[in-house]
Design a protein that fits this description.
This protein is of the alpha+beta class. It is built from 16 helices and eleven strands. Strands 1, 2, 3, 4, 6, 7 and 8 form a seven-stranded mixed sheet that branches. It has a two-stranded antiparallel sheet with strand order 5-11. A two-stranded antiparallel ribbon has the order 9-10.
Length: 407
């Protein structure tokens, strides 16, 4: 993969690919879905997802959402899984996530709320218009028993939080039971002509059921997705009457750790290997929030984590770029033709020099590292050559991609 191709492998494009998977699963199983307003308005304005909006959202009725859960669980899709209250009691909401396990998406502000921190599509549930005080209490408690609890909680929220914590402590399957209970409550048929949607720590938004009788489609990054035909009325419920000037929430990119190609399990393991586990980073981040300031420790940890995320991508890119040329590279090395090798290793040298400024080595494999060090020596940069060797983690010297074996 070239440097230019690497730029095309963006989290936003990966997010659209995931959204397309959800669409295909729905269409193959007669499950209805609709782009959620926050995703739809971006499709209308830009025709694509912005770089900082990589978690698209769809709406489904409760019945369709439960069918979608069954479909995914039965399909056992490689590298894909679901996360929701029913299988992860730390998940703080009544919605479902379709997760790409071959990617990394860690929102520092949400901490360990997600047990599967990969890129995802959020499925928010169109619920029947039922008012149930106990169900509302449960959901409120679950939302507030999260990594970053609200600073100012009402008495009602404190009661809900205390009950939730007690329930989680003494009930091993508290998440599954709570999800099942909420499904029973909001699955009851009513005479109401409207649904409502409630997202994490947001108020209810009410939508007429008639909005979903006529359906249209909209294109997003070359793929078509379902939306209500009367999409303007749909959007106005969430964004107000003046859609032209509706303000989209901004995201602080420094609070998100995103990789489209590094599995989150590998990423978390690499953090442990370098002595900066995610728990330490989250603890420093939460401390900075509580103190309403960014401490030096938080900034240092955050910057280091971003560098490691980039390095994981760059190691893969360099390996895929250089490995097919190994016969030629070995011949040039044998003949000591370092002028040609310097040209072939130009991307590696450029990237390695940048990472060394942060005291990080870049090592796609042991053999490629040795040759890069020889190139640096030839170019008169013996200092960086030695530093590159000293900082290289031993496990990085193994080939990044194992060769396949034929049976």
């Amino acid at each position: 993969m070239s440097m230019n191709e690497r730029k095309q492998e963006t989290p936003a494009l990966k997010a659209v690919a995931l959204l397309t998977e959800v669409r295909n699963l729905c269409e193959e199983n007669n499950i209805e879905y609709y782009l959620a307003p926050n995703t739809l308005i971006r499709a209308l304005r830009f025709g694509t997802l912005e770089a900082d909006f990589v978690i698209p959202e769809v709406l489904m009725t409760l019945d369709d959402c439960l069918r979608f859960i069954d479909v995914v669980n039965q399909a056992t899709l490689p590298g894909r899984s679901l996360e929701y209250m029913g299988n992860a009691k730390s998940y703080p909401g009544f919605s479902v996530e379709y997760v790409d396990e071959n990617s990394t998406y860690i929102a520092l502000g949400r901490g360990k709320d997600y047990s599967k921190p990969g890129l995802r599509v959020t499925i928010s549930i169109l619920r029947n218009d039922v008012n149930n005080l106990f169900a509302n209490l449960l959901e409120t408690g679950w939302e507030n028993d999260s990594f970053n609890p609200p600073k100012n909680m009402t008495g009602k929220k404190r009661v809900a939080l205390s009950y939730t914590r007690m329930r989680k402590r003494f009930t091993s399957d508290a998440g599954e039971k709570t999800f099942s209970y909420l499904c029973r409550v909001y699955g009851k048929k009513t005479s109401s002509k409207q649904y409502f949607v409630r997202s994490y720590r947001r108020p209810r938004y009410y939508l007429p059921k008639s909005l979903f009788r006529e359906i249209a489609e909209i294109e997003l990054d070359g793929e078509s997705f379902k939306i209500p035909k009367n999409y303007e009325r749909y959007l106005k419920v969430f964004f107000g009457a003046d859609l032209q000037h509706a303000v989209l929430p901004e995201k602080n990119e420094q609070n998100y750790l995103i990789s489209a190609s590094v599995p989150y399990k590998d990423y978390l393991q690499r953090l442990k290997e370098i002595g900066t586990p995610l728990d330490d980073i989250l603890e420093a981040y939460l401390k900075s929030l509580l103190e309403n300031r960014d401490s030096a420790q938080t900034l240092d940890s955050r910057n280091l984590v971003f560098s490691i995320a980039r390095r994981s991508n760059d190691r893969r890119m360099l390996y895929e770029q250089l490995n097919p040329k190994m016969d030629m590279i070995r011949n040039l090395r044998s003949s000591k033709n370092y002028d040609e090798l310097a040209v072939i290793f130009r991307d590696y040298t450029q990237l390695a020099t940048e990472y060394l400024k942060e005291d990080l080595s870049l090592c796609p494999s042991g053999e490629l590292l040795e040759i890069e060090c020889e190139v640096l020596d030839y170019l008169g940069d013996a200092k960086n050559s030695e530093k590159l060797k000293q900082l290289a983690p031993p496990q990085h010297k193994e080939p990044l991609l194992k060769p396949s074996t034929k049976q």
